[in-house]
Amino acid sequence: xxxxxxxxxxxxxxxxxxxxxxxxxxxxxxxxxxxxxxxxxxxxxxxxxxxxxxxxxxxxxxxxxxxxxxxxxxxxxxxxxxxxxxxxxxxxxxxxxxxxxxxxxxxxxxxxxxxxxxxxxxxxxxxxxxxxxxxxxxxxxxxxxxxxxxxxxxxxxxxxxxxxxxxxxxxxxxxxxxxxxxxxxxxxxxxxxxxxxxxxxxxxxxxxxxxxxxxxxxxxxxxxxxxxxxxxxxxxxxxxxxxxxxxxxxxxxxxxxxxxxxxxxxxx
Amino acid sequence: xxxxxxxxxxxxxxxxxxxxxxxxxxxxxxxxxxxxxxxxxxxxxxxxxxxxxxxxxxxxxxxxxxxxxxxxxxxxxxxxxxxxxxxxxxxxxxxxxxxxxxxxxxxxxxxxxxxxxxxxxxxxxxxxxxxxxxxxxxxxxxxxxxxxxxxxxxxxxxxxxxxxxxxxxxxxxxxxxxxxxxxxxxxxxxxxxxxxxxxxxxxxxxxxxxxxxxxxxxxxxxxxxxxxxxxxxxxxxxxxxxxxxxxxxxxxxxxxxxxxxxxxxxxx
Lengths: 268, 268
Known about the structure:
homodimer, TIM Barrel, eight-stranded parallel barrel, 268 residues
């Protein structure tokens, strides 16, 4: 999916919501546990309940790998089930020397046909280059993450910049705003504004709203640009909005509630 | 596997060789392509040919994920096939916020029972902590990697240290030499000596010998400590030593050649 298609979807749905399918088999309603593939069956219900109000799904590989082969199967079936008009993100945080990264790119962009993958910048340019070579695919690079560990290295001072600033400005020269996004945590307060200043045209994937405590209003006021430029991810506050028989209705309501707030920010 | 067991194996076999099973289906002898699981069948032959002279296997997830479900199946079967006396490394370079990293730890340490996993430090302490909590399991953190991209961020100056130095000294305080190793590339020349000075007691996982051009002699002279303290990985120069019918014999010879050199360095 190219940037124009993504932005058209955002305008049409008046939403920049990404739903995170971090599906933990120990947290889904127990009624699913008797089905052959509980995680996939749950994901289908969540996708059905949210697809009209979100523009992206982010599938976190960790939760699927934890289930072994059956988890990988559920992962593949889930991405296949998502309507092709919706942007798909493999939240995989991969990154290795060039010939290995090329294999990851083949896995997620080629075989699984994801629109985007999250990657770690630590190993530098040749570890990201294979992802950037795919047309109409997106490389989403960890910039300033939402967790407390962001303080350990991302905020290390290097010259007159923090490491996260150096990463973002450097990586922005390797790719373009048409094929590169940055992960910028919603919990990072005023640093968000700083990132927007560094890369005025790039899309951000913003985790940290909901369970992690980030504010949708703050992100939106800080980082929205003319063609939106942000995808705000919510995982647990939507997919586990209820653990009862009404989980699908509650997930739909939670997603719709985010979307209606987003529609207001987009209309400003 | 704990450190004593690993070191006992090294002394017994007079070897600190790790064989990298970065098995690319397009590079294995064509005779395997008619079997049901070519990658696993090839890996079995390589393991049979090398297990007497190596002390570790490193399985790179990238090459398996590129094949989808059948690749993940080959990955699981391969780790199961490795004798339990040999140290197993999931070369996965994972790392995410705490609750996601906990799922990766469950996948690789719990379900698959690997002895070790490679992880990226970018996201800081809470992204590594779940791995460190497993007894007799090892977290192998990217320190100074073997690729050209190491120059982009790992060599960024932060205060009076390079980033890789800050990462290694910081992470060494989160874990211990009994549960933490560092990836230090064989291509990094004199910086290897510097890393050994920073962490005199830790094991290093050293990629970059062979195809990438690193020198076994240089690493060994620089980084060996009283109880060895290094695992030197070789992938392509062993597993693709020949693409003919003699691939198994040539892999065995290549591995034995490394081992005999290692025996000499250990005897010094």
